[in-house]
Amino acid sequence: MVSTFIIALREGLEASLIVGILVAYIIKSDRRALLAPLWSGVIAAVALSLGLGLILSRTSGGMSEHSTALFAGTTSLLAVALVTWMVFWMKRSARFLRSELHGKVDSASLTGPVALAAAAFLAVIREGLETALFIYSNFRTVADTKSSLIGLTLGFLIAISLGYLIYKSSINLNLSKFFKYTGVALIIVAAGVLTYAVHEFQELGWLPGANAYAWDLTSSIPNDSVTSAALGGTVGFDTTTSWLQLGIWALYLVAVLIPYLSKPRARQLTPA
Question: What's the gap between Cα 159 and its chain centre?
Fold first, then answer.
């Protein structure tokens, strides 16, 4: 529940902010006629994202055990790569996001409504497809689907509400800190998804050490227990974790968290 809540809250707020910035600029510049193509692009992006989630769940349902492991491992790796890229992209681009979106509206409005709909679609679809893929991969790592769905729903509801309140200037949320801390949380969740991918490839025989366990706690923490589901969905904990899974989990966290949390270097002026 916690992991899907974090994913939905972070990604949902990003999408809400993007839409809010676009809508506010269109209204402020007295170009309300552009709202219709804008919303058509947003709706199309949301529909395509939901369609991807449905395709992923349906596709994996009718596969053989071997194909399911391959599909789950591959999609998990892709999800981790996308999320890792996204948190660093937001870190670099957050301060310029508003002016960049304003520029897209100005350029698209000169071309026509179709161009504006496409601009809105592309601005939202990145978040939507990324969210669909990451949530699907995260669902594979948790045992309690019901609680995960609750977390997902709550995350999206709160994200949309926050986005609306920020748009209406009802609250003053420190977005820099919000995205920094939720970025750290997403990286931790991504590390868990990565260990799941490693496990699937070990089951396929593509990676060694499937039975070389760092720990085996199935006797004290059953796989279907609330504790196992909560730890598995947040930090990627598995009651039977191999040394390879543990090593890659730790290596990923160190390799990603250190540059993510580091402050950008100030540019040094060279003397003339």
Answer: 13
